[in-house]
Each structure stands twice: as structure tokens, then as C-alpha cells.
Design a protein that fits this description.
By secondary structure, the protein is mostly helical. The chain is about 85% helix and about 0% strand.
Length: about 20
């Protein structure tokens, strides 16, 4: 499974949203 990859993407998106706002 590539759960680690999904987790990395989720963190990147979360940081992007928090950083954008």
C-alpha cells in the first residue's frame, strides 16, 4: 500500500491551505 504517499500529499495540501489562508 502507498499510505505513506497519501499521508505526504495530505500534509502538503493541509500546509498549502493553512499557508494560503
Amino acid at each position: 500500500m502507498k499510505v505513506n504517499l497519501l499521508k505526504d500529499i495530505a500534509e502538503f495540501v493541509n500546509e498549502s491551505i493553512l499557508g494560503g489562508v
